[in-house]
Description:
Layout: H1 2-18, E1 20-24, H2 30-47, H3 58-61, E2 63-69, E3 72-82, E4 85-93, H4 102-117, E5 123-128, H5 132-136, E6 141-149, E7 152-159
Antiparallel strand pairs: 1-2, 2-3, 3-4, 5-7, 6-7
Amino acid sequence: MQHLTKLTIFYLKTMVINMWNVKRFSELTIKELFDLMYLRVETFVVEQERVYQEVDDNDLDAIHVFKYDGDKIVAYARIFKENGHITFGRVVADKNHRGTGLGAELIDEVLKIIEQIYPQQEIVIEAQTYVESFYKKFGFQSIGNAFLFNHTPHIKMIKNNMKI
């Protein structure tokens, strides 16, 4: 319950400041769920020509972070705990909004939420290799070699969030 309280407080502050939506699965409206799944499938399955189970059990426990432009979600990511660390994934910007800085804005928001709700915990992600340098700008370090995940090359990356 403590995490829900922190999330609610952070969500209210975030909504007032910059119109990011931050919700647990049970808080999503049917329309929001449809919109975020539409963007994810449109990008990761159709555009990237990958056949895999896009919706998974992590969606149920994740914190969903997304931004609308009009009636369409234009940026999305999800945050969740996995194997003793914090992770995020399904990071996506609508194809018409790429190259505008929205992706960096999204990662900034995700990292703020993680620091607020899961302070000083290590973040481990599995990034598509073509965006490895993008995540390095946020302090992530690559670990090991590239591997295939859902038919796409990925790299494990870690960010130590411990305060010294």
